[in-house]
Amino acid sequence: MPLLSSKVGHSLDPIAFKLYRFLFRGRNIRPNAITLAGFLFALIASACIASGRLLLAGILLLFSGILDVLDGAVARNTNTVSPFGGFFDSVLDRYSDLFVMLGILLFFLRIHDSFFVMLAGATSVGVAAIPYARARAEAEGISCKNGLMERPERLILLVLGLCFGVLPIVVVILAVLTHVTVVQRVLFVRGAMKNPGFDKKS
Questions:
Q1: Is residue 178 part of a domain?
Q2: pTM for the model
């Protein structure tokens, strides 16, 4: 099961919405604009990682994560939830994740650490495969949100790794657990499809 997402759910919405009102002082900022701002913070963070400014990158990535929580909370609290908003958020999340991993890969390439370049590459594959496994399961009518390393968990680990100078340790953890998460989802879907009540698509 996911460590954070399914347990916390939308319970942080009231706090997130209050933070939104404090930050934007009553201005009517659309959820999609917040989503885009979060993506831009992640994009700048990835450039900072690549250039070795790890602490700054960690702070920017933290802001990106906060905005990622805010956009959904604002949409739900202002009754502006839309199918496109969810789609837009998901697409930019994927871009954010992979740009950050690209920044990490370039950082290790810059310091000539081939081992961690390979680990960063392996992590990138896992990061891309996790949401794909979920999307493919949902295309078969199976809700698949389980696994150790969903996006919030990965983001928290990366922020800690960047801010406290332990990025190599975090990359090792992610290189293993992202693929463990994919395996968890594959096994979960396999079990669900073996259920007698599963409606097989033609």
A1: yes
A2: 0.88
